[in-house]
Amino acid sequence: MRLTDISIKALKPKDGGIAIYYDDTLAGFGVRVSEGGTKSYILTHGRRRQRETIGRVGVISLQDARAEAKRRLAEYTLGREKPKSIGWSDALDQYLKEVAATCKPRTHADYEYFLGRYVRYGATRLSDISPHDIRTTIERLADTPAVQHRTYGVLRAFLRWAHRKHYLDRDPMERMQAPPASRPRDRILTDDELVRVWQAAGNDTYGKIVKLLILTGQRRGEITGLMGGMVGADAITFPAEHTKNGRQHVIPIGPVTVGILGRQRPRGALYFPARGKKTPFNGFSKCKARLDQQCGFSDWTIHDLRRTFASGLAAQGISLPVVEKLLNHVSGSFGGIVGVYQRYDFLPEMRHAVAIWEGRMQSLLNGR
Predict the structure, then answer these.
(1) Highest mean pLDDT among 2-16, 82-96, 310-324
(2) Per-residue pLDDT tens digits for 296-308
(3) Are residues 143 and 69 in the same domain?
(4) What is the CATH number of the domain that holds 9?
């Protein structure tokens, strides 16, 4: 039959199923009528009679649908490769599985977190996601510059991967300008604020994590992913795959830290798993908001505790190389040629620094 606006209005589904009506004037072009009566323009082509949807009747015109069908047929005839039809969620699952073998666990966790939380397209086909959709997603994060910049980066990596896999004809971010990087923070907590945070933190899972961050100055991901086998009697050993710079990191711990950690967990068990899961604790946003209410101020971040730790040690006379060793920094004092030849572990000096810091915290908490 020849498809016209009038003839399409009269099309009906078959009894108990869908019906497809092909156009006599363009091979493979037709209208699909669902069991519920929804009508869509479709194109069937190739030896395997692949069928794809062009658009909903009423959303696009018959003229535009026929023109799009001709354009696609021309591309297939000329031998251009058609992007494989795959949804956002399926592509993301495949991407996360593939990159797991080549990136560090913390990097993989970042990909999973930012793409899963801030970029949600569900079953939408990758080829249907436009540059406008991407830009809208990124612009919605403008109030949190650090999150916006990181989401932009991981999303760009994912879409480049999808382009290489031929799931996309073109990368929708290829002409998109990156949002400005967030400005480095210089916030450190005062002694009074540090005491208020400690006292408000309590002894639940989140509270223990916060206290360990205050005492050790380590990164949040390193503490939340802490496993029983990493904790010794007087030191924590973070394996290379657990750290940001990919280097094993050993830090001494004092009696206050040991008391918070408690009895060593069986090897392989997380200290702070998410509720009912074998994954690190992940309830930071809600817990931080609750902690802000309890301690009475909110203009601080969890990462500020690391800066406060470093500044507090320096104020107590601890040398910069020792502070950097505790923080596991590979630049600064240990950058360049120094990092190649300097192999002293600074453990005695770090142990002394930890004792001073724990003593300092106990004095603050006792009001001295």
Answers:
(1) 310-324
(2) 999 999 999 999 9
(3) no
(4) 3.30.160.390
